[in-house]
Design brief:
Length: about 325
């Protein structure tokens, strides 16, 4: 992609193979900055032989941490107030579920199942209940989850805690692909900040690092991996909402879904009627991200190719921005 083959050939010719091994690698979740080279844990974007040589000489082997919204800034903007109200019992979980369901939000992991309905299925099962967050996005061309984690991690995490509270989950397993070292570092630090601020108990959120298996993006294979087994999909039924992690009822969501859960709950009408319903119900347009003016298009499997005009999106951006 974007000259990666040519770059690999140049690197094999210009770098000393006694000191540096050049290996072709699977998706790194950085298609927007391709060609990318992983030098240890550091991703060199828009890579060239000169950039690689400079990074090797300076021993730049660790991932730089991008600028993101830390806990202090998120709290100052009213963050976690919705979750705290749920935890205190002043917000009813059923009403929150109805709010998410009425917004039309569907899972962003691929299946498109109504998010609020999934909560009711899990809550109907006897506890203890768990939650698993699927951050193993490995599809070529996909990097949306990484974007959220590296810019607004707490918006996603509040959505995660809201969903966990709605099903009374006793533990959260956050499964993230190993190809996202900066996001892993951010999450480790910010989870510790949540614990220090007494927003969550110590150990309530358990960060699990994936090992590069694409199949673990499938929810039951991810659960097998979380349990320490080989990541292979399970037969259904039973479904993970009935028997998930350690054979207990488990709520599974992906990162972008939880980002929208928080946005719908915190900002209500502004996003639930425009963004979430567009995400959930339109065949052609899956996501319009007004903040960075990014357009992302996908077609439903059942849909015929549709002509798309950008004019309504441009006008819509003027409405919500």
């Amino acid at each position: 992609m974007a000259g990666a083959d040519e770059l690999a050939d140049k690197l094999n010719k210009t770098l000393d193979n006694q000191e540096v091994r050049v290996l072709r690698a699977p998706c790194m979740g950085r298609c927007n900055t391709a060609p990318t080279v992983a030098l240890g844990r550091n991703h060199i974007d828009h890579a060239t032989p000169a950039k690689l040589q400079q990074a090797i000489s300076s021993k730049a082997f660790t991932a730089p941490i991008p600028s993101y919204q830390p806990l202090t800034d998120y709290l100052a903007a009213g963050g976690y107030q919705f979750y705290k109200q749920m935890k205190a019992g002043t917000l009813d979980s059923i009403k929150v579920e109805d709010k998410v369901f009425s917004a039309g939000l569907r899972g962003m992991g691929g299946a498109g199942f109504p998010s609020g309905k999934k909560w009711s299925f899990v809550r109907a099962e006897s506890g203890p209940r768990y939650m698993a967050v699927n951050g193993d996005e490995g599809e070529p061309g996909t990097f949306k989850d990484r974007y959220y984690l590296e810019t607004q991690p707490h918006l996603f995490m509040e959505g995660m805690l809201i969903a966990a509270q709605a099903v009374e989950a006793e533990h959260i397993y956050l499964y993230l692909r190993d190809e996202y070292p900066a996001a892993l570092t951010i999450l480790k630090h910010e989870i510790a900040e949540l614990e220090s601020a007494n927003i969550v108990p110590i150990g309530y959120i358990e960060l699990r690092r994936g090992a590069g298996a694409y199949i673990c993006g499938e929810e039951s294979a991810m659960i097998e991996s979380i349990e320490g087994k080989r990541g292979l999909p399970r037969h259904r039924p039973p479904f993970v909402a009935q028997k998930g992690i350690f054979n207990q009822p488990t709520l599974v969501h992906n990162i972008e879904t939880l980002y929208w859960v928080a946005r719908i709950c915190r900002e209500g009408e502004r996003y639930s009627l425009r963004s979430a319903k567009m995400v959930a119900q339109d065949c052609a347009v899956i996501r319009y991200q007004a903040e960075s003016i990014t357009l992302e298009f996908t077609f439903c499997p059942q849909a015929q190719p549709l002509p798309i005009s950008l004019k309504p999106l441009a006008a819509w951006h003027q409405v919500i921005s």
